[in-house]
Predict the structure.
Amino acid sequence: MKNLLLALVLGTSLWGYGEGVLYWTPHGCDTGKTAASAHGGHGKGESAMFAAMNLEGNATARLVLPDLSLKELRFNQNTVMLPAPKLGGYYAMVAESNVSGNVYSAIRYLSLFGRPAKVSPTKLTALPKTVLEIVPDPLHREHDRYTGSKTYRFVALFKGKPLPNTPLVLETSRSGAKTYESGSDGTAEVTLPDDFENVKPGRGNKPSEFLLTLRHEEGGIRYVTTFSMPYSPNPNNHWQSLEWGAAAAATGFLGGLFFYRRSRKGGHNG
Amino acid sequence: MDKFLTVTALRRVVQLTAFFFFVYGATVFTTFYTDDKLTQALPALSCAYDMKGGDYCALIPLQHQMDHRVSTLFTEHAGIMQALMGTAITVGTVALLILILNKAFCGWLCPLGFFQESVGMIGTKLGMKQLPSLSAGTVNKIRPVKWFIFLFLVLIFPLLTGIGLLGHEWGSPFCSICPSRIMTTLAVGDMSQVYISQAGWGYFALSLIADLLFGLMVALALFVRQPFCRICPILPMQTLFKKIGLLRLVKNGSSHCEGCSNCVKACPMDIYEIGAPARNRDITHTDCTLCGRCVEFCPHDGVMSFKYGPATILTSSKESFKKRVKIDKWWKG
């Protein structure tokens, strides 16, 4: 019951975001956070419980582990609880549903701590997971995060092949939808907005969520897939100054040249 | 062609190749991800902040392990294995690499070392008067700094951060001031690491020191040999294992050595100790980067040598000395 209420609250707060498409979002409830802390992961405070929004029909969910093996996930209402990870590295959460001939899918990646899998994360992202798929190229590196004002590349794939000239829609809870189009090789470069409010200097700013949606129709079947991940404010837009940094480096350089002048005048060896 | 074939020429080729691998290697040899790096514990300043790098230095995992794992011995009464296994793997990897190449990681493979030498070459070509050597007094004053940096910025401050006695900014303080972080990220077109942080006094101080140090290092490298290498905390870490290194600098001095000191003048780290008499002895000093210049510039047959295990792989000779001096004169104009 508590989970259902929380899912309702979450759904209300994200009204108008990801409307009508299936996507993953962290549940953020106490149970999920407790489980996440027990996981001891790299999830940067992300919950271990996730909700599949707009879940309808006969839905399935599975986890692709860092060693590329599969584990079925069981929905409780529209939520899944991740098992404690044995392997460390990137995991892919995949949800699929079939509603009135329309095929919906959602993918989300997360990094968890555990015994090294000895399989490159490139193999996880390259592994076909759904018929229509948005593949991060690359997914941000371990210990890194998606950041506002930065540009990332994604590949639109249909049945494992690049999908050219197709719109990818970017949504966040604070900015309106923005449409990007994949090029002839299926890739699109997407710039995340730095649309955070009341940003505090340093750590302690909670990440927000972005959602990419890709739609394609073939053989009378409508395919819709999403890619959702957290993103954070860009420090260089808020509490770090590149200009002052360059000025400090220039000051250091001038200090070095001062030593050079002194060494020439003094003519000594140090 | 043979007249240009010297140890330094060979070293430049190796350094350039290593620079491309360690700074841009992810674009060709490895991939973008940490999991795919070559060793993740390189005893040279190849930076993890460079997203296109082929490997990263041992100091970043060491600081993280002190902060997040070793500290659990005190905060969570964690088991020895759980708290120290990561550090043992990193240190063990470093020991293995030192066994293979000893301190040549500095003189032959370090991207920051190569960068400083390249800036030095630019300084020479700009006609800037080069400081031939620092005085013994200056060298002795500088030497303890690297130990201070290694003990406090790589080990103690991160450990105190993990225990909760220092703020988060002290979790990886060496990386916060390391010029390699700025140099390698700039080399891949990423300007984001040249910043002043306003997140707190600690962040502000570390970011200011980093930028000043980087600018100072570039300017000093124009006329002083290897300015940052003299305080680099990689040297003390390598020193812990240098006795097991198969590659070493051996001196079998003769009476000619007295009053010569060519090896000391050639040494970019100003190691005065290598000029002292020695009989078939390993003289690989803590500050030595195994660059081989002392072997090249020794005018006496068989006095200075590089040995790999029992085998002599390079030895000084009158002939190679003459060739090297000729090239040096040509280069300096």
Observations:
- The longest strand of chain A covers residues 87-99.
- Chain A touches chain B at residues 89, 116-117, 120-122, 138, 141-144, 201-203, 235-236, 239-242, 244-246, 248-257, 259-260, 263-264, 268-270 (CB under 8 Å).
- The CA atoms of residues 45 and 207 of chain A lie 9 Å apart.
- Chain A has a mean pLDDT of 88.
